[in-house]
């Protein structure tokens, strides 16, 4: 049995370029102000992005999306251009809403080979889309996707790869097939995601009604995250915990969050201290030991506030290094929050 590595030096990191979002999705902690109150509302600076790449040559890929809308960052074009020049892949596989994009930005995504975008589209028209993606405009999103495709054709490039992510709700469960067809027509992959349930709120927003239909469409045999846990014995988004080892999450201001669920507390600041030293400091190391069941819960570790960790605390199904190694990528929509 392979032992857990003593020092973490991942080739992939997650660096949130924006905690600002123009939408007001009902259960999102960004929309209700919880994220801003805890870790701030703002944009990653180009100078900080450049510093991370220049000082850490082992980094080969950076996920740029998390709690805000990536395409609102005014310096994003400069960032993706610099990453391209340094041969560092960048992507937005956690998710983006694509409501606000300039033509220059769209062309830059193709020109500088932006790796992939998970497009959060939970409807087939403005009416169904706006029930959850409040303040959004379905037609804007589709037009921006078409513009991306035009530039992909112009540059003869497969990038960025586009994924249509459709969160299953009660109000849109009858439109899954149509959404899948629309995605295919746009040259996009399609992913049907189980809704957040009570992950971020006590009340479940628009719960699935036709459970048999969604169970079949997901291919998982379940219609919500509670059913997933009952059937498989693990949390639907359990692999997000692996980020503390494989691709740790950093806030726009440099605060190390560890995973992309955490917005409660940080583990240090990578813009003020060395990235490797923060990744391997006492607090971060203790958190990893907690997730493996090797150390008891400690109040200053953000995990104690997380429902994923508290589920592990109850069922004692701790994370193992073998499980982390088997997990492959921890960067796609199938296991985003």
Description:
- The chain has 337 residues and is of the alpha/beta class.
- The protein has one domain (12-326): TIM Barrel, CATH 3.20.20.
- Helices cover 34% and strands 12% of the residues.
- The protein has an 8-stranded mixed β-sheet with strand order 6-5-4-3-2-1-7-8.
- Helix 4 (103-111) links the parallel strand 3 (89-96) and strand 4.
- Helix 2 packs parallel to helix 3 (76-85).
Give a quick set of tags describing it:
disordered C terminus; 13 helices; iron; single chain; about 325 residues; alpha/beta; 8 strands; TIM Barrel; metal-binding
End-to-end span in angstroms?
30 Å
Using the 3D structure, state the CATH architecture. Answer: Alpha-Beta Barrel
**Portion in strands:** 5-15%
Low-confidence stretches: 329-335
Assign the CATH superfamily. Answer: Aldolase class I
What's a concise summary of this model?
The chain is an alpha/beta fold and 337 residues long.
Topology:
Blueprint: E1 12-15, H1 34-39, H2 46-55, E2 61-63, H3 76-85, E3 89-96, H4 103-111, E4 116-120, H5 126-132, H6 138-154, E5 161-168, H7 176-185, E6 189-194, H8 211-218, H9 225-232, E7 249-250, E8 256-258, H10 275-279, H11 282-291, H12 307-315, H13 321-326
Parallel strand pairs: 1-2, 1-7, 2-3, 3-4, 4-5, 5-6
Antiparallel strand pairs: 7-8
